[in-house]
Amino acid sequence: MNLCTIKRNIPFAATAVVALILYLAAGFRFHGFMSVGVFKNFFSDNSFLGIASIGMTFVILSGGIDLSVGAIVGLSSVIIAMMMETHHISPVLSVVTVLGVGVVLGTIMGALIQLFALPPFLVTLAGMFFARGLGLVLQPESITINSYDSLLSHWTLPMPLTALLYLSMFVIALIIAHFTKFGRNVYAIGGNEQSAMLMGLPVSRTKIGVYAFSGFCSALAGIVYTLYSPSGYARAADGLELDAIAAVVIGGTLLTGGVGFVAGTFIGVLIFGIIQSAIIFQGTLSSWWTRIAVGLLLLVFILLQKLLQLKRFATSKDVSK
Amino acid sequence: MSAKPANFSSAWSSLKWPALALALVLAFNLFLTPGFFHLTFRDGRVYGSLVDIINRGAPVILLSLGMTLVIATGGVDLSVGAVMAITGAIAAVLITKNVSSLLVIIGLPLVISIIAGAWNGALVGFIGVPPIVATLILMVAGRGVAQLLTNGQITFHNETFAYIARGHCLGLPFPITLVVVAFFVLLIATQKTAAGLFIAATGDNELASRCAGLHTRRVKLFVYVVCGFCAGVAGLIPAADIQQADATHAGEWLELDSILATVIGGTALTGGRFSLGGSLLGALLIQTVTTTILTRGVPSQLTLVVKALVVVSVCLLQSDKFRTFTLAAARMNRKAVTE
Amino acid sequence: MNDANQTDALLRARGVSKSFPGVKALQEVDFTVRAGEVHALMGENGAGKSTLIKVLTGVYRRDSGEIHLGDNLIDPRTPDEAQRMGISTVYQEVNLVPYLSVAENICLGRQRTRLGLLKWKEIRDRAEKALARLGVELDVTETLANNSIAIQQLVAIARALDTSARLLILDEPTSSLDEGEVERLFSIMRKLKADGLGIIFVTHFLDQVYAVSDRITVLHNGQLVGEYPAASLPRVQLISKMMGKELSELDLSRGRDDRAVASSLRAPLLELKGVSRNNAIKPIDLQIGAGEIVGLAGLLGSGRTETARIVFGLDPAETGEILLDGKPVQLNSALDAISHKLGFCPEDRKLEGIIPNLSVRENIVLAMQAGQGWLKYLSRARQNEIAEEFIRALNIKTPSPDQAIRLLSGGNQQKVILARWLASRPRLLILDEPTRGIDVGAKLEIEKLMAKLTTEGMAILFISSDLEEMVRNSHRVAVLRDRQKVAELSREQISEANIMHAIAATEVK
Q1: Taking CA atoms, which of A64, A172, A198, C305 is between 20 and 30 Å from B116?
Q2: CA nearest neighbour of C351 among A318, B218, A118, B318
Q3: How far is residue B132 from each of residues A298, B46, B70, C393, measured CA to CA in Å?
C-alpha cells in the first residue's frame, strides 16, 4: 500500500468511518434504531435520492455539475402521473416516455455545455428552472396515482420495488464505472481533460453522454418517487440536487473530478438516511436539522479534500484558478 | 490627446442592449396594456404600475447589484436566497421577543449577513474552494438555520419595521429609496476608489493582477461581503412587507434572477469588466417582463420557463463558440445560395 | 542532402509552412528523420520547433507542404489520427491521467472488450509487455501519480509503443529529471533506436544533445537553418546557428566603456548567494548594484527566467539567501517583492502581464495604484496624464488610452506592460525579453529610457535573446548554460562572440 493509493482512498475511507460512527452512535442512543426494518428503510425511503446521486456521481467525476436533478424528478413524476391517470396510457409506455424525456433534456444540456462552452452550473440551473416551470405549467396540483396498485399486486418482491430499483441501478453504475470504456473515459476526462484529448479519447461524446445519463437517472428517480409517494407533483424533490451533490462529495468523490467511487456515493446516501432517521427517532429536533447537518458534513469533506490537494501539489508553481 | 468624456460613451454602449430590451417591453405595454404608464398622485405619494415594478423588484435589484461584483471576480453566490431567509428570520425572532430597539432589529440581521458574506469570501478567496460549491454550502445549511429559527415561519406585527417595505420617502415607496441609495453608494465606491479597478482586474486575469501587486484574496473577500450585505438588506423587505418571515420561500428563485440580471446587463460570467447600471436595467427588465406576463393572464409558472430560455439565449450570444458557429453556418448558407 | 539516404527516411517533411494571424511560424521547412536514429530538433524562441511538432502530431494543420511517413503521404488532422498513423508524442508535462493506474494509462482508449466489458487481465498484461520492451518493471496496478516524473515519462513512452509507434517525439523530456534518470532515458532511447524506431528529441540542453543524438536540425525564426551530423558540428557553431548569427561576420562590438566604475564600489542593491531551485536553477551567485544594468545571457531553458522569477518571489528559492541592501529578505510572493520595490516585466505577457479587457490606461496605472491602496485613487485626470506620458515615450500605437489592451498588437501590448512597471518606479526592475515583438524604433526608445533610469539610480536585471541588444546595454553580463552560471563578463569582455564562447564552454577572450 503506497502513499498515493492511501491518499486517493482517504476520502472514501473517511466516509465509511463516518457512516459507521453515525450508525453506531444512533444505535446506541435510540432504542430500536438498529432493527432490520429501519435498515431496510435506508434503501427504500432514499431510493430516489440514491438513483439521482448515481447520475450526479458521473457528472461530477467528469468535472461538471448538474443542478437540474430535482426539477427533472418533479417533471418526470408529473408526466408519468398525467400519462397514466389522466390519459390512461399503459404504464410501460409511460415509463419509457418519461425516461426518454430525461435523456433528451440531459443531452440538450450536455450539448450546450460542451459544444458552446457554456458553464455547467448555469446551463443546469436554467435546466432546473425550465423543468420546474414546465412541470408546474403542465399540472400545478399534485396527482394521486392509483394505476400502480393493479400492477404491483401481481408481483411479489423480496424487497420494496423502490429499493430493488435503487440497488439494481447501483450495480449497473458500478459495472459502467469500472468495466466499460465509457466509464473509464469519464474518469480520464475528469482527471485531466487536456491529456484525455491528447490521448485521443472521445471527450465531446463522453461529456454529453454523462449529462444524458444524469437526465436518465433523474427521470428514473422521478418514477421511483411516484412509487414512493405515490403521486406526481411538480414541486417534488425541491432541493434534491443539493442533497445529491452532498451525498456524492461526502461519498469521497472530488469536486474537481477524476477521483471517486460509485460505492462512495452509495455510502453517502446511506449517511443521509442515517441522519434523517436519527432525527426522526429523536422526535424533538425538527427535520430541518437534516439540512444543517448535511451542510456541515459537506463543508468538512470539502475542507478535507482541499487539504489533501494542497499537500499533493506542495511543490508546484503559483498557478491558481 | 486630451481626456474626453470617453467613459460616458463607452458606458452607454455597454448599456444599450439591456436598455433597448427594456424599452421594447415598455413599448409593448404602452400599446397593449391600458393605463400602464398612468401615474396618480395622492396625499403626496405616487402610485402606478411603473412604481409597483420598481417597488416589487427592489429585492432582485439589490441582489443583482451585489451579485454583479461577485460575478465580476469570476465567481458566483448561490446563497443569496438563503441569506435573505436568515435575515428575515432573525428580524422576526427579535420582534417577537419584544426587542424594542429598531437599531438592533435591523442591525443584527445585517451584521449576520455581513458575516455570511465573509464566510463565503473566506472559503473562496483564502481557501480556494470553487465559488459554486462554497456558496452551495451556505445555500443548503443557511435555509436550514432560517427554518430552525422560525420553526417554518413567524408572523409578527411591528409598524416601524414595516416602514422598510410600506413606508414612503419623497413620495415613493421606501424600497425604491433603498435601491437608489444602494446603487449610488456602490457606484461611487467602485468609481471613486480603486475598488472598481481592482475587482475588474482580478476577474479578468487574476494571475497578472497578483503579479502587478493586487491583493486578489482581499478583493474576493470584499465582493462576497458586499453581496451578503445586499442580500441582508433585500431580506428585510419582504419580511417587513408581509410581516412574516417565511424560511422556506423567502428569496426563492431569486439567485437565478440576480444572475440573469447581471448577465443581461453585460457583465460576463467569466469575470472582468462589470456594469452596475446594466444589472439595474437587467433586474428592471426581469421585473417588467414578470409583471407583463402576469397582467396578460399567463400562468406565473411560465415565467420560470421563459427565464430559463432567456438565460441560455443570453449566454449563447456571449459565447465565442456560438458566434463562430453561427457565422460559419451563415457563410455556408450564403455560399450555397450564390452557387 | 545525399539522396541515397532518402531510402532510409522514415519521415520526410518538405516545404512545410504554417502561419497564424500576424506571424509566420514555419516557412518552407524541410525535415527528415530516418528509422533507427535519434534526431535532435533545436532552435531558440520563435524558431518554430513546437509548431513543427504540432503539425506532425495533428494538433495543427499545415498550410502547405508535404509530409511522408514511410512510403505514404500523410495528413494528420487530430492527435488521434497521428497516433494511429504511428506518430506518438511524449510531452514535457507527460499528459497522462494522474489518478488512473499505470496499466490503464498505457491502454486507455484502446482497450479490448468482450460484450462491452473491459478485460482487466488483458490490459495489465499488455501494459507489462510494453514496459518490458523498455526494460522496465513496474507494478502496473499502481496509481500513475505515485511514481516519479521520470517513471511517468517511461509509462508515456510505453503507451506510445503500445500504439505501435514508428516515430516517437520526445518534447523536452529531461527538464524534470536528475542525472541518473536522464541516463536511463538515454539507454532506453538507444534501445528503441536499435529496434528501428525514429526518435525526434526536442531539447535545449546542449550536453544532452551531443550525448545521444545522431543528427541535429536547427530552426531559426521559422526557417530551416540546416541539418548536421552531431559528430561533426562543433558546439559554438551550433550555438551561433541557433542564434541566427555566423561567427565570422560577428562584429566584436565591445560593451559600453562609459560605464560608471563607481557602482562596483558600492554595496550591491540585490545579492543572490547560492540561490537554487530544483529543476530550475543550480546554486547561483549574482550581484546587482544601483544604477547598473546586469544582463542574463543564455540559451532558452538555461535558467534565466527561472532566476528572474525567484528574484521576484514568484517561485521561492530552495537554498541560499537573497540580500537586499545587505540584509536577508524572504521573497515568497509577488506582493513581497513589490513591497520591497521590485518590479517584473514578464516574458509571458498574456498569462502574467496583460489584463485583456481593461484599457491601456488602466493597465499602465495598475501597479502604481496597487501600491497606493484602495482609497488613494488616482484621479482620472492623473491616470490620463501618466498614460499619455508613456504612450508618447514608448510610442505606443493606440487610438486612445481607453482602448482595450487586447486589441493592440503584441508589440504594443508589451510596451504597455513595460510602461506599467516604469510608472511604478521600482528600485530594481527585472525585464524578461522586454523588446520581443517590438519595432526597431521603439527598441531604441526603450534602451534610452533604460539608460536614463539607471542614471537616476534604478537597477535593471535584463534578459534578452537578442545578443546585440544585450551587449549594447549591459554593464555586466552573467552567462547561463544548462541551468547554471558559467561566466560573468564585464566591460570590455562583453561581446557577442565572448558570450557565445562562454555558453559553448570554449575560451573567453
Answers
A1: A64
A2: A318
A3: 13, 41, 12, 45
List of chains touching B (3+ CB pairs within 8 A): A, C
Query: Which chain C residues contact residue B212 at CB under 8 A?
Result: 334, 366-367, 370, 420
Spatial distance between the Cα atoms of B293 and B299, rounded to a whole number of angstroms: 8
Contact (Cβ atoms closer than 8 angstroms) between residue A240 and residue A75: no
Mean pLDDT of chain A: 86
Q: If you ran DSSP here, which 8-state letter would residue C404 be given? A: B
Burial of C407: CB neighbours in 10 Å, binned 0-12, 13-18, 19+? middle
Point out the residue among C80, C89, C97 whose CB comes nearest to the CB of A192.
C97
Q: Chains near A, with 3+ CB pairs < 8 A?
A: B, C
Chain A nearest-CA residue for B259? A122
Write the residue in B1, B200, B215 that is nearest to C358 by C-beta: B200
Spell out which residues of chain B touch residue A290, defining contact as CB-CB under 8 Å: 144
Q: Angle at Cα C176 formed by Cα C88 and Cα C103, nearest 5°?
A: 50
* Residue A68 grid coordinates: 437540474
pLDDT digits (tens, 9 = 90+) for A23-50: 888 888 888 788 878 888 888 888 999 9
Please state, in angstroms and rounded to a whole number, the distance separating the CA atoms of residues C161 and C89: 11
pLDDT of residue A13: 81
Only one residue has cell 455570511, namely B116
What angle (nearest 5°) sits at the alpha carbon of residue C40, between those of residues C38 and C44? 170
Query: Which of B140, B253, B251, B86 lies closest to A244 in space, CA to CA?
Result: B140
Q: What's the rounded mean pLDDT across residues B292-298?
A: 79
Residue B297 CB neighbours (<10 A): 6
Q: How far apart are CA C441 and CA C450, in angstroms?
A: 14
Closest CA to C471 of C304, C261, C295, C262: C295
Distance CA A116, CA B317 (A): 10
Euclidean distance between CA atoms C146 and C152, whole angstroms: 9
**Contact call for residues C111 and C118 (beta carbons, < 8 A):** yes
CA distance C304 to C464: 9
Q: Does A179 touch chain C (CB under 8 A)?
A: yes
For residue C163, give the C-alpha cell: 500504439
Q: Are C355 and C408 in contact (CB under 8 A)?
A: no
Cβ density class A8-39: b for 16+ within 10 Å, e for less:
bbebbebbbebbeebbeebbeebeebeeeebe
Taking a C-beta distance cutoff of 8 angstroms, is the pair B136, B195 a contact?
A: no
Q: What is the DSSP string of B273-309?
A: S--HHHHHHHHHHHHHHHHHHHHTT--THHHHHHHHH
Task: Please work out, in degrees rounded to the nearest 5, the angle formed at the alpha carbon of residue A182 by the alpha carbons of A178 and A188.
Answer: 80
* CB-neighbour burial class of residue C152 (10 A; exposed 0-12, middle 13-18, buried 19+): buried
> Any idea how long chain C is?
509
Q: Which helix (H) or strand (E) holds C432?
A: strand C428-432
Quick one: pLDDT at residue B5? 38
Reduce the DSSP state of residue C184 to 3 states and report it: helix
Question: Across-strand partners of B106?
Answer: none
Q: What is the reported pLDDT for B327?
A: 80
- Tell me the whole-structure pTM to 2 decimals: 0.84
- Give the C-alpha separation, A74 to A110, whole Å: 20
